[in-house]
Design brief:
The complex is a heterodimer of chains A (346) and B (78). Chain A has 346 residues and is of the alpha/beta class. Chain A has 12 helices and 11 strands. Chain A has 2 domains: 204 residues, 3-Layer(aba) Sandwich (Rossmann fold); 103 residues, no CATH class. With 78 residues, chain B is an alpha+beta fold. In chain B, helix 1 runs parallel beside helix 2. The chains are: A alpha/beta (346), B alpha+beta (78). The structure holds iron/sulfur cluster.
Chain lengths: 346, 78
């Protein structure tokens, strides 16, 4: 008998972990794929922020693959994914998360991968009704059709609630040993995890990426608005994850580190953005994004001073460092907290 | 003859360094060695995890000022 092969979409969460194990139990050879969009919650922030130091510094997709004993292919889709974020045909979720288009796109990429690598079908950890907008009974066939994969897509955790797929019809997998999970409850998943002996798995609350985060989405829309178009580079979307973003005027914003870990990370961008570094007191690193006049520069320093240990001092001194590394000294009176308009803080 | 190469992953955040190593290793032969120079401390966990899954060997992990350097030997199944 031919050894059948499946490619699993591994997000790093519990559902894809379980879906994969269910199919492995049926004697199918499974390998995993993890798509890196740039917005993934994995990796970055916990490496940057001190406060997250105690959290395990692990990539959950790699961790899942290791627990499953499967190979994992991590694919960089940052460039192609932009179109999904800019123009989602099915719209955004509650924030800037284009979940349905995202799923279609990833399944489409997985389909291309199996065709190229001679695999038989794709599996996902989707569960009907798990997410109000993107994982509904009505969206399940939409993903199959629009990705072009049709019945080579199997969702082991809710397959019994869906029409038979090719792997079931052909007898590669036994439908009776698949599941009928539905709805928002996580109990069936937790019970199955226990049965398989999985512990310490990741349980992201909102979703698998920063686009589901309200504050992140506000910063992203602000960036698009200030640029007059929807556009971003990988560095932009990384920087949206760190610091306090303050836009006092339409033409520029400040990114003010909130702690030492962020300062270290942001220093890495000093050749791309001008920086304000406090010399008279302890305080955060500040990057400036935009073109500024002399008055704007003074205003920036006053705001940055407000977030430093010199906030109550009469004068705070700065080095203003441009992207060539030229240093200019300036001194300002810190801005009074009441003068910082709440709407400036994104 | 096994080859030795260096990969610049500075300023890249995980999982980008892992992707760089993965894509570079795909072009190498078993026994070849690659030295990834990274700044994200997450690599000291992620690159070894990727190696364990894919049958490669971590020869050395060291810190050098702001850098984290991970040296990988390509496994037989590559
Ligand atoms: S949460 Fe993010 S990664 Fe997950 S489906 Fe939605 S848009 Fe895609």
């Amino acid at each position: 008998m031919t050894q059948r092969k499946a490619l699993a979409l591994i997000s790093g969460g519990l559902d894809s972990l379980l879906a994969t194990r269910v199919i492995q139990e049926q004697g199918i050879h499974v390998e995993g794929v993890n798509f890196f969009t740039g917005f993934c919650v994995e990796g970055h922030t916990h490496a940057i922020r001190q406060k997250d130091k105690d959290k395990p510094k692990r990539n959950n997709a790699l961790w899942s693959a290791e627990r499953l004993g499967i190979k994992l292919h991590i694919v960089d889709i940052v460039e192609e994914y932009k179109e999904v974020v800019f123009n989602p045909k099915h719209g955004y979720g509650s924030n800037l998360n284009p979940c349905l288009d995202c799923k279609i796109f990833m399944v489409k990429k997985a389909h291309e991968w199996i065709e190229k690598n001679d695999f038989d079908f794709v599996i996902t950890g989707e569960v009907i009704g798990q997410r109000p907008k993107s994982q509904r009974k009505a969206t399940m066939p939409v993903v199959q059709e629009e990705s072009g994969i049709h019945d080579r897509l199997l969702r082991p955790l809710c397959a019994k609630n869906l029409p038979e797929t090719l792997p079931e019809r052909e007898g590669w997998v036994n439908r009776s040993q698949l599941y009928d999970f539905h709805g928002r409850s996580r109990k069936p998943q937790m019970a199955l995890a226990q049965k398989f002996g999985f512990e310490d798995y990741a349980q992201p609350a909102g979703g698998c990426c920063f686009l589901t985060d309200e504050q992140y989405s506000v910063k992203l829309s602000d960036m698009w608005q200030s640029r007059g178009e929807k556009r971003y580079e990988l560095d932009d979307i990384m920087l949206l994850k760190v610091g306090r973003h303050v836009r006092p005027k339409a033409n520029f914003k400040l990114i003010i580190a909130r702690e030492a870990g962020e300062t270290k990370f942001m220093r890495g961008y000093r050749k791309q953005y001008p920086s304000l570094v406090i010399t008279s007191h302890g305080g955060p690193w500040t990057l400036i994004d935009g073109e500024l006049s002399e008055d704007d520069l003074m205003l920036s320093a006053q705001i940055a001073a407000r977030y430093s240990q010199g906030r109550d001092a009469e004068q705070v001194d700065f080095d203003y460092i441009n992207t060539n590394g030229d240093v200019r000294q300036l001194s300002v009176v810190p801005m009074h907290p009441d003068d910082i308009d709440k709407a400036w803080v994104l | 003859m096994s080859e030795k190469s260096t990969l610049d992953c500075q300023r890249l955040l995980c999982p980008m360094p892992v992707i760089r190593v993965q894509d570079h290793v795909a072009t190498l032969n078993p026994g070849d060695v690659v030295e990834a120079i990274c700044t994200d401390p997450g690599v000291v966990n992620d690159i070894p995890a990727w190696c364990r899954i894919n049958g490669h060997e971590v020869v050395e992990i060291r810190e050098d000022e702001d850098d984290f350097i991970v040296v990988v030997r390509v496994g037989e199944s590559a």
